[in-house]
Amino acid sequence: xxxxxxxxxxxxxxxxxxxxxxxxxxxxxxxxxxxxxxxxxxxxxxxxxxxxxxxxxxxxxxxxxxxxxxxxxxxxxxxxxxxxxxxxxxxxxxxxxxxxxxxxxxxxxxxxxxxxxxxxxxxxxxxxxxxxxxxxxxxxxxxxxxxxxxxxxxxxxxxxxxxxxxxxxxxxxxxxxxxxxxxxxxxxxxxxxxxxxxxxxxxxxxxxxxxxxxxxxxxxxxxxxxxxxxxxxxxxxxxxxxxxxxxxxxxxxxxxxxxxxxxxxxxxxxxxxxxxxxxxxxxxxxxxxxxxxxxxxxxxxxxxxxxxxxxxxxxxxxxxxxxxxxxxxxxxxxxxxxxxxxxxxxxxxxxxxxxxxx
Length: 358
Prior knowledge:
By secondary structure, the protein is an alpha/beta fold. The chain contains 15 helices and eleven strands. It has one domain (2-357): TIM Barrel (Alpha-Beta Barrel).
């Protein structure tokens, strides 16, 4: 499962690289996002679904604009998703559309509607409280960027005297339905609060490294009892949606940062990408009677899976391909590497990008 992404941002892949986070957002990403149409979002989501199906991802958690379009396109592609309705202070009308979106999708078999307030520094207190109240009313998730950078933490502390984690706690938002992406700049005190609240953290190693935001203290989060999942973030900052690549980078970077080769072992990383992510959203994992029937089949007759001695290690550290078939809700989305309609999606996505950047 890809537990944190912005799927339609596949259209922005490679558009703005090698920049710091805030200049990247303000100078490149946000101006282009202002030009996005519903059709752009639809084709961007389909392109992202296509990439994830090829990567064996059966479910993803999104936060972005036009959530109804995201949900419709995802359902058409056959993937399972937790779709967060993005909320930003600079676009106040977005909040008005959240409740109708939650009502529309609350009983769907593939789409779980959620609320996605962007971050504590891009949403007012009243907006965050409104998001909290809606999440409680519909018993759904709040998906938010949290403590992504040191600057975010320092700005809030100077203004409120609280860390972002403490601020959410003061608003009554720290609970088991909170999905907090990044958590790079969190203190030991923050970690204890996240664990006590049974909040969920999504580690996005590649995106954080590419934007030089820092490194989430994943080992400490896990050892403190926080449920940690893995996410790719958007394709504009990763630039890939391959969760297997995310697993490898997460495992290796943690070892390097901590100067400890035992940090974040392969089986724990595998658990973060599978069991932890599914349990975060209350989804059953595994093949069982009455289960979800979500699975991918991997061709193990590839050189990087030999010798046959430690399959989990091979999946984390050496796999460079081999997803053969992807099945969601019992429906085959890719069989032997073939996905119906792939050529049309690629062509349409290219046309959308050219329109946006012309």
